[in-house]
Amino acid sequence: MIPQIEPWIDEEELKEITEVIKSTWLTEGEKTKEFEEMFRDLTGAKFAHAFCNGTATLFTTLKVLGVGEGDEVIVPNLTFTASINTILFAGAKPILVDVDKRTFNIDPDLIEGKITSKTKAIMPVHLYGQSADIDKIMKIAKEHNLFVVEDAAQGVGVKFNGQHVGTFGDFGSFSFYGNKTITTGEGGLLITNDEKLAFDSYAFKNHGRLKKGVFVHDKIGFNFSFTEMQAAIGLAQMRKLDKIIKLKEKIRNLYLAQLKDILEVELTFIDPRCSPVHWFTNIIVLDPVKLAEFLKEKGIQTRRFFYPIHKQPCYQNLKFGDNFPNSQYAYEHGLSLPSSVLLKEEEIAKVCEEIKNFYRDSN
Ligand SMILES: Cc1ncc(COP(=O)(O)O)c(C=O)c1O
Known about the structure:
By secondary structure, this protein is α/β, with parallel strands linked by helices. 38% of the residues lie in helices and 14% in strands. Helix 4 links the parallel strand 2 and strand 3.
């Protein structure tokens, strides 16, 4: 099977993690600090804290900003459910906004129509490795005095007008789940330029205190700590990031070149202001289900786009309505092709060949 995605793990990670095991220091320590520093260097943010996963990270940003009961948070309708769940568990109400039909990121022109006296924050999601239109979003947020939490779970390495995503708003939140651009197995990290938010978010993930080994707690907190094993893998992954970004671009270019003559297949549009990291190479087709089934039979794994939030069975009691045509379009027509950096050129050629066969056979 050609997998849709798989992590690039080798001797580099093994060497780092062996050091951790030999040191016997398994909880957050020097390697975690080094990993956070690498993230500050990558993004240019002043503060970075590693977390056990990206959901805990996002949740913490909302709690620290004081988002809670009676508040509304604006969020795109096409995202992973974690974005919505963190808002719900913070006690606030998610207000869904449809996505742009070309970038599949939140449509900034629809945001103002959803702002009410209860709106406290906007949570744009930088989907599939492409930045949302963060300039417009920040302008709206400033005009209406709203917080911005950037869900950059899929946005490691992604820039908008030369600036790394996650550094525009009050917080940026990343995920290092196994299928992400870089992985630590599970893992997350937040960045901020605000010292108070940095202290508060560190305390929130560390039982409400600024140091470990202290048992007088000024605040109520959770335990969302990272581990040195995660940091070890993360360090090796961060050293590969430049190569990963280049390989992802090469993969997309190979698909682009080999699929360009198939009129039924269109690669998704990239906003020229964005320097993307093609976490996935995505295509738009008439019937992704039939194409995915055909490719599966040929040993090729693909993935459909996110199921729109308003359709998710788990949110039916929230009555989001049904007016999200572009998210619906994305789900009905989007397909993510195999996009692992471990893919061989012959494998990409095989995927393209089989896509050609599918359209030749069905015409
Ligand atoms: C858009 C988005 N937000 C949040 C998350 C949550 O991250 P994690 O899986 O690390 O908890 C993910 C990833 O899985 C995601 O894709």
